[in-house]
Specification:
single chain; alpha/beta; TIM Barrel; eight-stranded mixed β-sheet; two-stranded parallel ribbon; 11 helices; globular
């Protein structure tokens, strides 16, 4: 435990010195200590304020966040190099206030990391860009190794869980990414928000049909007092059933209580790459 706490502290210090944030901290992820101990982190770009106000999320809302920082890509690449990362994960708040939704900053970050760490793989976890095909294409043109966009929940719960988002719009983004070729396509779901197992299975099947290679399924845990309530604690048998369904559909489903979209991202990306090479 002392070594784990020391590693976590070292990562935090480095990120602060570089003026960077992680979604691990902002979203109060339950796996933060484990990931920091292994020397990995998911970089959060485009500020600490989100233009949407989803009830499941711990990130603060603002209608007018700070402008994108042109030096941010270089700082992320520098921090990734100092941490010795082999797999770099980059995500962002939703920026509906920007013409490109922040897509240009994603592309710049991918390019900067590739220049600084040519041997590292890069994963992006993107917002829906308000349905902009041009914004999606800007990120895809940078050729991320993994393109991730979370569906988050089942269609019936979207109005409550993801106000401002549309299930079909997110599915179309995943389809577009899959059609571009070259990237592992990934999405994630939370369970315990009031959905039924049948609804989750339907979404997993839809994700497979959209071209996803990897689907993560994890327990929703309220990140703060006024967040959406947790309806139930999902049992291990249910997670196992989701993974079995993935095998039937020919995709990788990683399911478990503490599974998050970026948890052990490097190992998940390697597994999928090996499968694709067979």
């Amino acid at each position: 435990m002392p070594g784990r706490l020391s590693q976590r502290h070292d990562v935090k210090v480095l990120l602060r010195r570089c003026g960077l944030d992680t979604v691990c901290e902002q979203a109060r992820c339950p796996n933060m200590a484990e990931c920091f101990h292994s020397g990995t982190a998911t970089f959060l770009i485009l500020g600490e304020k989100c233009t949407r106000n989803c009830g499941f999320c711990a990130i603060d809302h603002s209608a007018s966040p700070v402008p994108p920082d042109p030096d941010e890509p270089a700082r992320i690449a520098g921090a990734a190099a100092k941490l010795g990362l082999r797999h770099v994960v980059i995500t962002s708040v939703t920026r509906d206030d920007l013409a490109d939704g922040g897509a240009g900053q994603f592309a710049a970050c991918i390019d900067a990391v590739r220049h600084k760490l040519p041997g590292a793989s890069v994963e992006v976890l993107v917002p829906d860009f308000a349905g902009s095909a041009a914004a999606a294409d800007l990120v895809l043109a940078a050729r991320p190794d993994v393109f991730n966009h979370n569906l988050e929940t089942v269609p019936r719960l979207y109005a409550e869980v993801r106000p401002g988002a549309e299930f079909e719009r997110s599915v179309k983004l995943l389809q577009r990414a899959a059609a571009s070729g070259g990237s592992v396509i990934k999405t994630g779901l939370m369970v315990g928000l009031g959905e039924s197992p049948a609804e989750v299975e339907q979404v997993i099947a839809m994700a497979a049909g959209a071209g996803c290679h990897v689907v993560t399924v994890g327990q929703y845990l309220p990140p703060r007092r006024h967040a959406l309530a947790m309806h139930r604690l999902v049992g291990d048998d249910e997670y196992e059933n989701y993974e079995k369904l993935g095998k039937k559909l020919g995709i990788e489903v990683v399911a478990g209580r503490l599974v998050r979209s970026s948890y052990k991202a490097e190992s998940m990306a390697k597994v999928r790459k090996k499968q694709a090479e067979r």
